[in-house]
Amino acid sequence: MAYSSERSQENRRGFLDPRTKLALVLLLALFVMGGLGGEALRPAKTAMSFLPFALLLIERRWKSFARGVIMLATGYGLLFIMPRLPGVLNYFALFCGGILTRFAVTVVMGEYLIATTTVSEFISAMEKIRMPQAVTIPMSVMFRLFPTIASEWKSIRRAMRMRGIHLGGARASQVLEYQLVPMMSSTVRIGEELSASALTRGLGAPVRRTNICRIGFRAQDFILLAGCLFVILLWILESIGVKLW
Amino acid sequence: MVELKNVSFRYGSEESGAELRNSLTGVDLRVETGEFVLLTGPSGCGKTTVLRLINGLIPHFYPGKVEGSVLIDGRSVTDRELYETAMLVGTVFQNPRSQFYNVDTTGELAFGCENRGLPEEEIYSRIDGTVSRFGIEKLMDRSIFQLSDGEKQKIACASVDVSGADIILLDEPSANLDYEATASLRETIKLWQKQGKTIIAAEHRIAYLWDLVDRALIMSEGRIVRELSGEEKKGLSDSGLAAIGLRGIRQEAPESIELPTVLPGDDAIVLRDFSFSYPGSAAPLFDLPELRLAAGEITAVTGSNGAGKTSFLNCLCGSEKGCRGTLKFGGRLYSAKERQKLCFMVMQDTGNQLFTESVLYEVLISLPKGTSDERGRAMDILAGLDLDGFADRHPQSLSGGQKQRLAIACALASGRRILLLDEPTSGLDHAHMMQTASLLERLRLMGTTIVVVTHDSELIRACCGRRLLFGQLA
């Protein structure tokens, strides 16, 4: 059968709408990572923390799921053994464990957002919430640049090892500085070439863009967004002094 | 119809001092609708600048002073907004890694039409048309990070095709491509010619399109110095082209050049059970029970894009984690870690391996500890590579060829005995390619073993004495 881009777009449609994913990242960042709502909201926060992991399983992102679980397990492991450790190590374990347990869930959610959202879906979602192009375009470039920066970084690290510059080597103190020099110039160059290419393809025209990707709220989006609203409601009630449980 | 009337251009603003390189002086050019014109000439001659004037990136994106007029169908490009020009002109750029705005192939094909606000149904049918004409069903709905350079360039061409632009600009599109991918690019261009598109290509490697072009314009220092068409174009030989500083027009697959891998009299470097697999993948990319390379010779490694040649080099110099196996050189076995001190690799993206703020310092940190008169020794090495005049320059401000020579200078300073190069001549003109070839020959005479991954048949002809066919071994 001949290739049909329309059919394939339909098949590739993500489990969630990008707007739902963004709302979840925001909420997790505020409540779980930022600690908004304090102890009173703990049950809601615990429930929310399972969400990104469940989503990764639904989208079959086994690797990201495993990475997230390991991050979280290491964090709790450190907090668990912390009281049994001597002096400085104790402090170190508390510090790392605290950061890991606090950040891991939100990081996993962010990773889920980046990994399962195409640039086109992202732009489309931003347009639906009437975000101006001046915000959308730089953010979408960031989407594109992250994986590129990661691969440049890898190649620079490789080059440094080959030149004998590494932590523990002769010039350990300059390692960071040396990494940044090529990193900055290659990121600037790639960013410039990306922009040039996008401009020759009409990005920024003062017309209403179309988008071929399929986004839109479905049952799962409504359920999760209702959950988000519920958490916010709890937080408002709690902050005006209503006893929750 | 595209016209340049007495166009002069310099990059940069007046205050910062205009840069001479890549500037244009009094260029007159007229390309009729449906014509295919080739712009060629040494690096820095201004051919890319001409393309940027036509697609409007100059002066809208790259600032500078434009004199004269650039017209498409009688209307000035300079006065038009970039997005208006974008509907008429499509561009395929040199670097396949940095011309995609999307992370998935289908989104990329749709991008130009989406920006223009075409209705969805129209975009779907255009994409489907292009996909079947280009035969790229297998590349659809993929992440662009999983594609080889050849496949990426194919998607870049396809997205220009979907946009429906009648004028197509090609800015060294073959620089990173192997022989097969270049041949496929040629087919794409033939398709466009048949449709009556106007095509203007800037290229060093002219062999793959020499017989297709209607006219070839040779540029030098910002001027069009010669125009070849008809009989005159047909009558030119490789040596005639070399005399005017151009690359050859003979299409030759690097695989078809007959060279031995090792000769009976060679000192051999022996690789045993050399294998590599990507982390998480069970099947090895290559697995070589025993492989011999000639020590003290220049060996070309050839094979198609994606066969694992670059990974092979990374394994040789011990910087690849998923690599197993040993290397025996001069009666000694080297582990991966020890190989890091034996081999030096000049990467394709040379800028990524230069870390300091001056050329001299870059060489100084490469010298082994305890070298006497470090400065003098470093300057000697730089002088040997014509870089002594640049000792105080920032490495990242050098041209591509100079960066490459600086990386080689670091290799010499570090005293490594095996030098690996990854596509050292991609995007180089004839003169610079020959310069690299003679430099490699000089290093060989100094006793260095050189392994160079390349699909540049001209480079192989110019300096390689041995050849390893990669891909068939694996």
Walkthrough of the structure:
The complex is a heterodimer of chains A (245) and B (474). The mean pLDDT of chain A is 87. Helix content of chain A is 72%, strand content 0%. With 245 residues, chain A is mainly alpha-helical. Helices cover 33% and strands 25% of the residues of chain B. Chain B contains 16 helices and 19 strands. Chain B has helices at 47-54, 57-60, 82-88, 105-116, 120-134, 149-163, 179-194, 230-234, 238-243, 309-316, 336-339, 359-364, 374-384, 400-414, 430-445, 457-463, and strands at residues 2-11, 19-31, 36-40, 64-72, 75-76, 89-92, 167-171, 198-202, 215-220, 223-229, 268-276, 286-294, 298-302, 323-329, 332-334, 343-346, 418-422, 449-453, 466-469. In chain B, a hairpin with a 2-residue loop joins strand 14 (323-329) and strand 15. The model of chain B has no long low-confidence stretch (mean pLDDT 90). At the A-B interface, helix 1, helix 7 and helix 8 of A face helix 3, strand 6, helix 4, helix 5 and strand 16 of B.
